[in-house]
Amino acid sequence: HLDLYHALDPSSYLVVPLVARGRTLGTVSLGTGESGRHYGPDDVAFMQAVAGRIAVAVENARLYTEAGESLALLDTLLVSAPVGIGFWDRELRFVRVNDALAAINGLPPEEHVGKTLAEVVPGLADRLEPMYRSVLETGVPLVHQESTDGGEIAPGSDRHWLSSYYPVHTESGETIGVGAVIMEITDRKRADDRLRLLAEAGELFSSSLDRDEIFARVARVVVPRIADACNIFLAEDNGIVRVAYSHVDPERERIMAEMPSRYSFGRTRPALLEQVVFGGQAMLAPTLTEEVVGALETIGLDRELFARVGSRSMIFVPFSSRGRTLGVMTLGSLVPGRFGEADLELAKELARRASIAVDNALLVDELQARAQAAQALQFVADGVFLLDSEGIVRLWNPAAAAMFGLLEPDVVGRRLTDVVPGWLDVESLVPVAGPASRSARAETVPVELEDRELWLSISGVRFEEGIVYAFRDLTEERALERIKSDFVSTVSHELRTPLAAIYGAAMTLRRSDVPLSDDQREGMLGVVSSEAERLARIVNDILLASRLDSDVVDVAIDSADALALAKQVVAAAGAHLPPGIELALRAPEDLPPISADADKLRQVLVNLVENAIKYSPDGGLVELELTPVPGRMRFSVRDRGLGIPASEHTRIFEKFYRLDPDLTRGVGGTGLGLYICREIVRRMEGRIWVESRPGAGSTFTFELPLA
């Protein structure tokens, strides 16, 4: 526009700003072409006054337009917003509210205007006014959560709100009121509470492995968080038994304690309850009906006590584990209609988590039982092994490994017939009981191994996973029985021989038709005498062995002359040595006395010397040697006879054991001599052992303490 002014060729030019409320809106410019006309201070002052009025008019027009636009936008917001919106003046009177906030307050929007908080929401005014005042005074917005009690007794009946309060300003910054945005978050709050409840319950349930403790914790979690009353029952064959209960009211909980803890379904099962307890289906009874109460009464519910507990709405939720219903949880509310589908789902989720915890507890119990059984199998003396349906070894305890000489890693996972070929011959002879009887009479069978034969007393029990066998090794007992049998046979032979000689000599002496010289008669009497002595020794050995077994042998320990006893034994044995046997005593003359029973020591020496002579059928030197060692006297009887295999060195001191039971070398005896020697030496606080090799003779040595 300056170009236009220049075209007029003005003689004077004036520009004045349009200023409103401290803001420049534009300018007013004047120009004149009159000759000699010039603008002066009066003109400037006049135009400033005119410009001020123009600026106010322009600003009012702008504000009016913007206000209209703002009101239109506010109307749109108030109508369409899903949350409550309201405005209050400085006296906290309602200026405007939208339909959503009016619905929350329960009053039409137009009836809010001009009324105070106390007149519209009297129950909340005392709590809200201080916050509104704070916003007015400080100009600082507030965010607040509020809960209103709907007057219901049931837990969780409160409504929850999230409110934002902010100051309303003029353009000059003056606070002229309070605005608020209010939304209901009850569902979200309940969802959050349920998530926290489930998290807390999961942690609480998993922190115990005791089933009863878990159920007690379930009852404590649901009351009062989601219910007023809770009962937990475990399923039995035809009923349920209560294991935990809780009530929000201690007095009503005492009434619950008076109610029966066991309920029987009898022959007629109520369909409503059977589907829960035995069918594993949850049931929701929003309002408790006569049908539900009647069904409970048929299984033993005390109607009067139940009425005093006060449940008006109920949930029935089963506990399940691995496809099996463990029991049922009942939740009760004092308010009819309190429970809905959301509560049912929450209860089902709690029951599911509790079921997992209980299942874990049961699995731990089962594992502990199996671990204890496995531990017992590690130390039990009986052999135990398990074969699956394919005959493959799945369990092989240490006793079985020791008896068979086969380690567990070498057997488990393989067919028993592959590692013990002899099993195939005896498997059909082993009695196997079924799952019902759980026991079978053990049978003694021989099992051939590569290098030996085992006699096992064995039986089995069949179950789903295969057959478990338990057995004892009777090999030694079997050998002992054989030894006893051999002993009877040997004793019979040993007794028959002297008896036959005595009988023959006696019959010869009685015959009158056979003339006998004095020498012959004396010889016959000598036979009777010597064989009678032999017979007496056999009988005495048997009696002494029996007394040693019964521990009734008296040993009189005293100071004894070992050399004198040895000389007596050698002299007596030398009087009737077999051909080819040489007997010698080797000992220094100044031996110290020993602490022993002289008679018992003599018997030990006689047995050892006679054994040395008897087991030297081809003749040779037999020596009895006495050697003092520190604190003891050592007696050694050495021969050059048959010798003893190393594997038999310990067994020859057992009762009835004989190195040559079949008399293949013509060596007789009862098998009691060395057993008697061992027991007598032990009772005199000594020890005895043997050193021998087959064909190289034997040396039997024992030591006794010095006096």
Radius of gyration, whole Å = 57 Å
What's the overall geometry?
Answer: elongated
Helix fraction by DSSP (H/I, runs of at least 4): 40-55%
Strand order of the largest sheet: 10-9-8-13-12-11
Q: Please, what is the average pLDDT?
A: 81
Counting DSSP E segments of at least 2 residues, the number of strands comes to 26
Question: Could you tell me how far the N terminus lies from the C terminus, measured between alpha carbons in angstroms?
Answer: 151 Å
Count of helical regions: 21
Structural class label? alpha+beta
Beta content comes to 25-35%
Low-confidence stretches: 149-157, 661-666
Largest sheet: 6 strands, antiparallel
Fold and architecture overview:
- The protein has 707 residues and is of the alpha+beta class.
- The chain is built from 21 helices and 26 strands.
- A six-stranded antiparallel sheet has the order 10-9-8-13-12-11, with helices on both faces.
- α7 (211-225) runs antiparallel to α12 (341-379) and α19 runs parallel beside α20.
- The N and C termini lie far apart (151 Å).
